[in-house]
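Exam revision sheet. Question 4 asks you to relate a sequence to its structure. Input first:
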Amino acid sequence: MEDLIWISDKQILERIGKRVKTYRLQRRATRTSTALAAGIANSTLEKIENGDNYNILSLIQLLRILGQLDDLSLLTKEQDISPSEYEKILQGRKQRKRGSIPFI
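Answer key, structure tokens:
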């Protein structure tokens, strides 16, 4: 699997858009019918396919309609962590300085 850290956010959005468009075309569906079925605006689907900024909820609705919701399974997988492991994580974190945002 490619390390996405080396590509820009815009490139990631473009890759997602390309994949979504491929899924739609494989189903031989029009942009309009797909957007309608997903409950999103046609312009939103166009934004997604073009790699523009969009709402993640729109992507979820779209992937559900295209039968590709499993693409998000890695992000939605619940991870079990024991209380002792959680405590170790908390103890290992540096105390944040006043005014700074913690990085997890």
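Marking note for examiners. The helical segments are 9-26, 31-38, 42-50, 56-65, 73-76, 83-92.
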